[in-house]
Amino acid sequence: KAGVTQTPRYLIKTRGQQVTLSCSPISGHRSVSWYQQTPGQGLQFLFEYFSETQRNKGNFPGRFSGRQFSNSRSEMNVSTLELGDSALYLCASSLRSSSGGGETQYFGPGTRLLVL
Amino acid sequence: AQSVTQLDSHVSVSEGTPVLLRCNYSSSYSPSLFWYVQHPNKGLQLLLKYTSAATLVKGINGFEAEFKKSETSFHLTKPSAHMSDAAEYFCVVSQGMAGNNRKLIWGLGTSLAVNP
């Protein structure tokens, strides 16, 4: 079974631009969660989508948004990029919603975003 | 508020010696607890998880962790370190009431170095 894939793997943008990241979950998984990983803050939860609906949301500004398609693939969008948005963005998939607390998540390799 | 603290940001051991990575948590509800490992340039991988079953949890690659409610700890151990164990380790606790809308709170990570 193929794992979680994320595209692109690396991205360089400038302040004020927007960016869209893509995540394809493991086949059969209906939940996709997004995380931001930075050296100082560790992993921070952005949001979770399950069956095309946002199930859970972290404490990020509205510039961060996402969506999920009927095939469970998910996209994350960041508008009006700031220098502080430079990070590794990780996507994780699971069979059921991770909002239940005990679900195992499977992570992709991440997209490394650099904002100049 | 729920939180998780990894007590050591860096741990260095010699190959063949025991590994101890410490994690304390706070949670108002029965928590689910996880340990994930992140090797350089690779995705996060689940090592083990505790979800209110046996308090001693065995994971992959010879790792195990013991849930101690009285000490609010979930330390990760391995009897004998291998060079391939060198990686970043994350302790994770679920936040919130059982059911929907639980969020995973991640520790800041412990970097494990294994010396020959």
Descriptive notes:
The complex is a heterodimer of chains A (116) and B (116). The radius of gyration of chain A is 13 Å and the shape is globular. In chain A, the strands form two sheets. In chain A, strands 2, 4, 5, 6, 9, 10 and 11 form a seven-stranded mixed β-sheet that branches. Chain A has a four-stranded antiparallel β-sheet with strand order 1-3-8-7, with no helix packed on it. In chain A, strand 7 and strand 8 form a beta hairpin. Chain A has 116 residues and is mainly beta. Chain A contains no helices and eleven strands. The model of chain A has no long low-confidence stretch (mean pLDDT 92). In chain B, strand 7 and strand 8 form a beta hairpin. Chain B is built from no helices and twelve strands. In chain B, the strands form three sheets. In chain B, strands 2, 5, 6, 10, 11 and 12 form a six-stranded mixed β-sheet that branches. The model of chain B has no long low-confidence stretch (mean pLDDT 89). By secondary structure, chain B is an all-beta fold. Chain B is globular and about 40 Å long. The interface between A and B is medium-sized, with 25 and 26 residues.
Walk me through the topology.
The complex is a heterodimer of chains A (about 120) and B (about 120).
Chain A: E1 5-7, E2 10-13, E3 19-24, E4 31-38, E5 42-50, E6 53-57, E7 64-68, E8 74-78, E9 87-94, E10 106-107, E11 111-115
Parallel strand pairs in A: 2-11
Antiparallel strand pairs in A: 1-3, 3-8, 4-5, 4-9, 5-6, 7-8, 9-10, 9-11
Chain B: E1 3-6, E2 10-14, E3 19-21, E4 23-26, E5 33-38, E6 44-50, E7 56-58, E8 64-68, E9 73-78, E10 87-95, E11 103-106, E12 110-115
Parallel strand pairs in B: 2-12
Antiparallel strand pairs in B: 1-4, 3-9, 5-6, 5-10, 7-8, 8-9, 10-11, 10-12
